[in-house]
Specification:
Layout: H1 2-25, H2 31-43, H3 55-73, E1 90-95, E2 102-104, E3 107-110, E4 114-117, E5 127-135, E6 141-148, E7 160-165, E8 169-173, E9 178-180, H4 184-201, H5 207-241, E10 244-247
Parallel strand pairs: 7-10
Antiparallel strand pairs: 1-5, 2-3, 3-4, 5-6, 7-8, 8-9
Length: 253
């Protein structure tokens, strides 16, 4: 949590400095300039707590800001905005250096945190490049590890198909197979409504309100996970059995 907060502070601090430099000189700041200023910032007594967290995570935050401005000037995205601690998802990224990231049994090794017990979803293959630590609204922490590995191509089938996204059915494939709409929200609708009613009666930001907020967030997370799982299973089934896939380009709402 501390590293997430420090990464957010670094991003916001240098976003403010970048905006001020632009207003005063008509030019922004480069990544190297920000990195040099951050080194000086750590030496100041008021900001010495920045040295207590992973330095690579802070550098990644600066690179994220630099990349955001580059994409903004290329008209690929909107102007970077300040990050809030009230955002639903909080995260930071750190890079692999000198064995600072690794998996030992049922524990994961992370910079400044050491060995942390975790639930491993799959075996790690390949060379580790980086790790992203994410804090969800449900209070759970997730680690996504980026690794470089060789991908084995699937066998050729010679099959071509088209997919039609529907409302009654989730999707129809041209080989006459249909994917039913699971309607995960309907499955949890009553439970979610009850949890939200209880939340509305709690005093905002009290301990009981926070406990109930987590319960509501967990239901939302369960619905989102079920939808993602269904999409992954369906997409894998399609690419495994077909070489060429055509799909309509429509906005379905």
């Amino acid at each position: 949590t501390k590293t997430i907060g420090c990464s957010r502070f670094v991003f916001n601090h240098f976003l403010s400095a970048w905006n001020n430099a632009w207003e005063e000189t008509g030019k922004g700041l480069t990544y190297n300039t920000c990195a040099a200023k951050m080194t000086s910032l750590k030496r100041e007594k008021a900001y010495e707590w920045l040295s207590e967290v992973d330095s690579i995570a802070l550098q990644s935050s600066l690179k994220g800001l630099d990349d955001a401005f580059k994409r903004f000037f290329k008209k690929q995205n909107n102007r970077p905005r300040f990050k809030s601690k009230k955002n639903k998802v909080q995260a930071y990224t750190t890079k692999f250096t000198n064995g600072n990231i690794g998996i030992v049994g049922n524990k994961i090794k992370l910079p400044k945190l050491g060995l942390v017990k975790f639930a491993k979803s799959r075996e790690l293959e390949g060379r580790i490049l980086s790790a992203t630590i994410r804090h969800n609204p449900s209070g759970k922490y997730f680690v996504s590890i980026l690794a470089e590995t060789e991908v084995q191509e699937l066998d050729k089938t010679g099959s071509v198909c088209g997919i039609d996204v529907g409302i009654k059915h989730f999707a129809k494939v041209s080989d006459h197979t249909e994917r039913e709409n699971p309607k995960f929200f309907r499955k949890y609708e009553a439970k979610l409504a009850k949890a939200q009613r209880i939340l509305s009666r709690r005093v905002k930001h009290s301990k009981n309100w926070e406990k109930q907020r987590v319960k509501v967030a967990k239901i939302h997370e369960r619905i989102a996970n079920a939808r993602k799982d269904n999409l992954h299973k369906f997409s894998y089934e399609i690419i495994k059995n077909h070489d060429v896939i055509g799909i309509e380009d429509l906005q379905v709402s």
